[in-house]
């Protein structure tokens, strides 16, 4: 009887220890906060989206393609910045037409005068944003180039992505 109690107690202790270990690994890998491994890999996939290379003839790349996973909100992100010499209205019209042609569905326009579109990508929804860094100028800080704009694609396996 004492042997049986010792075995049961040992197994119970081992179960608790393993459970704590599994919970710790889950929490560290993004289960409680930040990005999961799947969303980190998704960021690399988003960076290959051809839509990030689509631009009007008078736009040129500004900087390098980027991809990351937003630790605060837990979504994957990839993008490219451009400089455009035309008007903002021409630029927005170009991306509205391109998005419709490529199967991107219009969403609610962004608060910064940009655009938002969505499209299924495997088991997730991808969001395409056209946005303007100059909309986020902060008093006392260097001003963003008014001709610069960004294209971003975001997505998440847990559904927390948006434009």
From the spread of the alpha carbons, the general shape counts as globular
The share of residues in helices is 25-40%
Taken in chain order, the helices and strands follow as HHEEEHEEEE
What's the tally of helices? 3
Number of strands: 7
Main β-sheet, in a few words? 7 strands, antiparallel
Mean pLDDT: 83
- Assess the beta-strand content as a share of residues: 25-35%
Detail the poorly predicted runs. 10-31
Compute the CA-based radius of gyration: 23 Å
Summarize the structure.
The protein is α+β, with helices and mostly antiparallel strands and 163 residues long. 33% of the residues lie in helices and 26% in strands.
List the helices and strands and how they pair.
Layout: H1 2-31, H2 37-46, E1 59-61, E2 66-70, E3 75-84, H3 88-101, E4 105-106, E5 115-121, E6 124-131, E7 148-155
Antiparallel strand pairs: 1-3, 2-3, 3-7, 4-5, 5-6, 6-7
């Amino acid at each position: 009887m004492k042997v049986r109690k010792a075995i049961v107690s040992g197994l119970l202790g081992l179960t608790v220890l393993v459970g704590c270990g599994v919970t710790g690994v889950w929490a560290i890998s993004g289960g409680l906060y930040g990005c999961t491994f799947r969303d980190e890999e998704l960021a690399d996939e988003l960076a290959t989206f051809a839509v990030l290379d689509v631009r009007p003839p008078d736009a040129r790349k500004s900087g390098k393609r980027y991809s990351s996973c937003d630790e605060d909100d837990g979504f994957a992100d990839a993008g490219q910045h451009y400089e455009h010499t035309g008007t903002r209205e021409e630029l927005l019209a170009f991306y509205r037409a391109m998005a419709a042609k490529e199967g991107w569905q219009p969403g609610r326009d962004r608060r910064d005068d940009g655009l938002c579109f969505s499209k299924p990508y495997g088991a997730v929804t991808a969001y395409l944003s056209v946005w303007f860094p100059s909309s986020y100028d902060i008093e006392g800080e260097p001003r963003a180039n008014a001709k610069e704009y960004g294209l971003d694609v975001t997505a998440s396996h847990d559904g927390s992505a948006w434009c």
